[in-house]
UniProtKB/TrEMBL annotation:
Pfam families membership: AAA_31 (PF13614)
Source domain of life: Bacteria
AAA domain mapped to chain residues: 1-186
Protein name stated in the entry: ParA family protein
Natural source organism: Sporolactobacillus shoreicorticis
Length: 350
C-alpha cells in the first residue's frame, strides 16, 4: 500500500480536482484507492459524495469521518483508533471523509511535534493519522491512499507529509505558484529533517510514525487557457519558469535529503508516456512534469454537480455541437496517462 500526498500551500492549484480524478483513474486501472480528505473545508468529500449524499452521510453517520475517528488519540479516550466505514464511490474507490472540526487538533498536534514537549498521551498524536489510514486501508485492501491536503504550512500537513510514501506538487502557471516553489524548497526538506529525528523518538508510542522518507513523484500544471491547441503565451512563460526552478533548485534540494528517486526512473516514465500518446501531443519541459491540464471550462461544473470525474461527464447536445467530445477524450487520455505514470514511478520502490 502506497500513500501519496497532494500538496501545495498555495490555494487554487487544483489539489482536490487532482486528488479525485487521479484516484478515479487509478481505480479504473484495477487499483483499490482510498481518498483521504484532510482539509476541513471538505471539498473532496463534497466532490466525491455529491451534495445530497454529503448531507446524508454527516447526518446519519456522524462518527464516520476523520475527526471522529481520531478522538481516542486527541481526547485521550481509553480505546484504540479503529478503521471507519468508508463511503464507496465506485467498485475500487473509497472515501475517508473530512470534517469541519478537524483543525481543532492543530494546536495539540503542534505541541506534540515539538518533541521535547511530547509526554504521556501526547506522544501518540503524531502517528495517529497514519494509524487510522493504515487500519482503514487494511479493511478495504487498499493499494493507493491519496491525501487531499489543505493549503497551509500547518502541523497537520507536516505530519501527513512525513507519513507519506510519495508526494505530488500541483501548481498553476502564475506568479504565486512560482513563488510557492521557492517556499516549498525551504519547507519540505525541513519537514523531512524533522521526520528523520522524530521517527525514532516516537517508535514506542501506541501510534508510531512510519520509517519512510516521502519521494517526489513530480508536479502538475493546471488551469490555463489554450490557443490553437497550445497554452496561451501569457501562461507559457510561467510554465518555463516553474520548470526551471524545479529542475535547477527544487530537485537538487530534495535529492540532498533522500526525497528524490533515481533520475533514470523519471526520464523512463516520461518517455513511456510520450510513446503511448500516439497522435496526442505530449511535450513537457522536464521529466518531473506529470501532466499539463488546461482549464475545464463548463466540464468542471458538471463534474462537481454529478460527482463524476471530469473525463466521464455526460455531454448535452449543445456541448456535443460545440466540439466538447474531443476535449473530453483529451482529458480522459491525460488522466489515464497520469495514473499510468504514477503506477510506473511507484513500482518496486518498497
Amino acid at each position: 500500500m502506497q500513500k501519496i500526498a497532494i500538496f501545495n500551500h498555495k490555494g487554487g492549484v487544483s489539489k482536490t480536482t487532482t486528488s479525485f480524478n487521479l484516484g478515479w483513474s487509478l481505480s479504473q486501472l484495477n487499483k483499490k484507492v482510498l481518498l483521504v480528505d484532510t482539509d476541513s473545508q471538505c471539498n473532496l468529500s463534497m466532490y466525491a459524495l455529491g451534495e445530497e449524499n454529503f448531507e446524508k452521510h454527516y447526518l446519519n453517520k456522524s462518527k464516520e469521518n476523520i475527526y471522529s475517528a481520531l478522538l481516542p488519540a486527541f481526547k485521550s479516550q481509553p480505546r484504540l483508533i479503529q478503521a471507519i466505514e468508508c463511503p464507496k464511490i465506485n467498485e475500487n474507490l473509497y472515501l475517508l471523509p473530512g470534517h469541519l472540526d478537524f483543525t481543532e487538533n492543530e494546536v495539540q498536534l503542534g505541541i506534540a511535534m515539538q518533541l521535547s514537549s511530547a509526554f504521556g498521551s501526547m506522544e501518540n498524536l503524531p502517528g495517529s493519522i497514519n494509524y487510522l489510514v493504515n487500519e482503514t486501508a487494511k479493511k478495504y485492501n487498499i493499494d493507493y491512499v491519496i491525501y487531499d491536503m489543505n493549503p497551509s504550512l500547518s502541523a497537520i500537513n507536516q505530519d501527513i507529509f512525513i507519513s507519506s510514501d510519495y508526494f505530488i506538487i500541483p501548481a498553476s502557471p502564475d506568479l504565486f505558484s512560482l513563488m510557492s516553489i521557492d517556499s516549498l524548497n525551504r519547507v519540505l526538506p525541513s519537514w523531512e529533517k524533522w521526520g528523520t529525528k522524530a521517527r525514532p523518538l516516537f517508535k514506542d508510542s501506541t501510534y508510531p510514525l512510519p520509517f519512510t522518507t516521502p519521494k517526489f513523484l513530480g508536479y502538475t500544471i493546471n488551469d490555463f487557457n489554450l490557443s490553437h491547441g497550445r497554452p496561451q503565451h501569457s501562461f507559457r512563460g510561467f510554465m518555463v519558469s516553474i520548470s526551471d526552478k524545479i529542475v535547477e533548485s527544487l530537485s537538487p534540494s530534495f535529492n540532498s535529503c533522500g526525497m528524490l528517486m533515481d533520475d533514470r526512473k523519471y526520464k523512463t516514465a516520461y518517455q513511456h508516456m510520450k510513446d503511448s500518446s500516439l497522435n496526442q501531443s505530449i511535450d513537457y519541459p522536464d521529466s518531473y512534469c506529470l501532466a499539463q491540464i488546461s482549464n475545464f471550462n463548463k466540464l468542471i461544473a458538471i463534474s462537481n454537480a454529478t460527482s463524476t470525474p471530469v473525463f466521464n461527464v455526460r455531454l448535452n447536445k449543445e456541448m456535443l455541437h460545440n466540439g466538447q467530445e474531443r476535449t473530453l477524450k483529451w482529458f480522459k487520455f491525460l488522466y489515464k496517462a497520469l495514473a499510468t505514470r504514477v503506477l510506473e514511478l511507484t513500482c518496486d520502490e518498497h
